[in-house]
Amino acid sequence: MPTPNRLDGYAPIGDYAAIGDGRTVALVASDGAIDWLCLPDLDSPSVFGALLDAESGGRFELRPEEPFDTTRRYLPGTNVLETTFTTSRGVVRVTDAMTLPTSGLAPYRELVRRIEGVSGLVAMRWRIEPRPAYGTTVRLERRAGVPIATHGQDAVAMIAWDAGEPVAHDGGIEGRLLTAEGGLAHVVLAAAHQEPLVLPARPEVDARLAATERSWRDWSAGRLYEGPWRDAVVRSALALRLLVFAPSGAIAAAATTSLPEMIGGERNWDYRFSWPRDSAFTLRALLALGCSREADAFFSWLLHASQLTYPEVRVLYRLNGRPEAGERSLALAGYRGSRPVRVGNGAAGQTQLDVYGEVLDAAHEVARSDGGLDRDHARWLAGVADHVCAIWRQRDAGIWEVRSEAAHFTQSKMMCAVALDRASTLAEQGFLRGNVARWRGERDEIRAFVESRCYSEDKRSYTRSADEDLLDASLLLGVIGRYAEATSPRLLGTVDAVRRELARGPFVARYLGEDGLRGGEGAFLACSFWLVEAYARQGRIDEATALMDELIGLSNDVGLYAEEIDPATGAFLGNFPQALSHLALINAAVAVVEAAG
Amino acid sequence: MIWGAIVGGLVGTLVLTTVLRATSELGLTRMDIPFLLGTAVTEDRVRAKAIGYALHFVFGLLFALVYLAIFLVLDESGVLLGAVFGFVHALFAATALVNVLLPVVHPRMGTGFDAAGSAPLLEPPGFLLLNYGRQTPLVTIIAHVLYGGIVGGFVAWAA
């Protein structure tokens, strides 16, 4: 691809690739700039935040000094990125990775950029502008000859080997080098948090880079999926692995905050939290790929995190398991002027009833996979089922976390029925104890409510909420969550209606109604993959396969997806990379393979 | 009295460690004494912290015994005198002990003459430990004054 066209300093969202180490994620643009990195963790403040403020957010640039074309790929089976710059004078290859810890004394976090001359002579330039705490200008100092920047309990060191003499200039450190064939240089960012900096040695950095590549390759070689779209499925698994916060097992919904759902709009949210709602999707995807260790870790995290709010399950939790997520706005310009830039997420305080169905469905998956449930977990789940019996009649904010008035959202009610159905099934299987008769009775009442008030004979479809005629793509989850038989006439009709009214080609909108926010949004990619899965579960293999083929073609050049896509231009919108999009891709592919027998 | 010094040394080190940890959480300093001590022995981060905590308590006890010796020479002890010792101790730590002596004996700690080479280097603390954050000298003084006061108090109580 040619040198990317930045608009006012902002690269297109789809222009980024993600690298990470299981604690945090950096986004690398195709012009070699790292525009997003939070340290020390994914949900910490950014040290490079040019993604949200091109002027003052801070970034790590590395590029040829003359016009260039770029080709990129992940090294096969890894989250190590390789960018090849081609200029009129030669070719340079840059390998980017956040190294994984090995034995030996390594920095708390380490970002490595290795520069290799492939052919000719290419003048390269690099510049690091650390702006900790979302854009704070800091004084640069030196330790043992190495430039460093400190801010409170955090510090970063900028180390260059054969990459020119690092010079402090205009609030950053920069250097220039001329690469020749076979030449090798490194620029490394070493970070410390609540401890003195560890300044790494060059041979150890090379060894860690090699070990990191090996570790990712070994992990992806262990993934079980065999079927069509294997490359996309494995890439999705690797993208998810980047979003798994290793210290706790939680899975972040995305690596970023406030990438807009509409350019210039206000739908800008912080997704660096874990949503229990995604638990069933997550567990099915992880178990299908043979990631039982990650699945167990996530399920344990989920039950542990929600202990404090038991029997209520909150909409989202911090990656360390804490429930508070106070929302505030930052004084940043926003991606291409999309403000406010939010950190924290106000949805944490909402009531969303569907989450219980997802959690109990997830428990059902775990019990099936592990052959049972831990006794404490079983007691916890029975308590949650009782809680559902008590609250399902309430109005809620629904799966899309609308900020308009609460309503009786159909998918929420469906998932309450699913929750009690799974609890009853687990009890029948002897995995948990409780008032099964009550659970079944309430489940039947919920179903009666849905069938009588949430179905439109005119549209031959379930509706967005009770006593209205609008549609909602979340109704596809009625098929996926097994609210009823997938091929029941009402679910068949609903899938057709969603396709008819909400889809444009491969793109599916979430809904068309009011949500309490100004402006519109793009098509929601997970909904498109849900449509594939719904087709597959209804035995409509040809439709599922055709749609899946189209959707696979919509990823960016390195196989990643954002939350949404602009149907008119194909540009990505919303936070990136998005766990739900990749989870939905994996589950859709697995469903098609299963349905095809 | 020796038991007073031993108990005071243990409790004082506990308080000192807690204060340093708490101020680190508050973003006032990157000082991490167990990490600094432990990495002199091993490169493994987890083992370094465990060994570092143990070493810190050993040093805490040894310093309490030094305090005891001075109390005996002066034939006087107490919280206030202990706090004064703690203040002097902090100044010594910040200007000489951690700033000059530790980098000399620590196999992985950088000095002004080192550059990153074949082995990883720990960031040197600098004069008054200022490299680890501008509030580090203040935090170090408060923690050591508390330590000294506690040792002095226990010695006086046991006398």
What report would you give on this structure?
The complex is a heterodimer of chains A (597) and B (159). By secondary structure, chain A is α+β, with helices and mostly antiparallel strands. Chain A has 14 helices and 28 strands. In chain A, helix 7 runs antiparallel to helix 8 (410-428). Chain B has helices at 2-25, 33-38, 45-74, 79-105, 136-158, and one strand at residues 121-122. Chain B has one domain (2-158). Chain B has 159 residues and is an all-alpha fold. Classes of the chains: A alpha+beta (597), B mainly alpha (159). Chain A binds chain B through residues 101, 103-107, 141, 143-146, 148, 150, 152-155, 157, 159, 192-204, and chain B through 24-25, 27-32, 35-36, 39, 43-45, 48, 108, 110-112, 114-126, 131-133. Strand 17 of chain A pairs antiparallel with strand 1 (121-122) of chain B, so a sheet runs across the interface.
